[in-house]
Description:
By secondary structure, this protein is mainly α. It has five helices and no strands.
Amino acid sequence: MADVSLRENIIAQLGVQSLPEKMREQLVxxxxxxxxxxxxIRLLQELPEEKLSAARELDGAPxxxxxxxxxxxxxxxxxxxxxxETVRSETLLAGHxxxxxxxx
Length: 104
């Protein structure tokens, strides 16, 4: 699911465009992994009951499940943005994201 729109959304939400590229990529990778899990859970919660069996047939493979969920949940983009914002506020404000200079 780590597609360009999610990546760009995370970069924009975090305001990290000015960080050194390696540090920015490290942060985006951490945030993307967390956001992906949260987005999938949130979209599954919003999925109409009659579509759950079709979602189960995708065996939880994110590369198949996410496009399916995005197509089935009308508010998917809005939910994605909300989850990215939640991840951003929970991790950055709480100080859970660790960036090290030697990795930058």
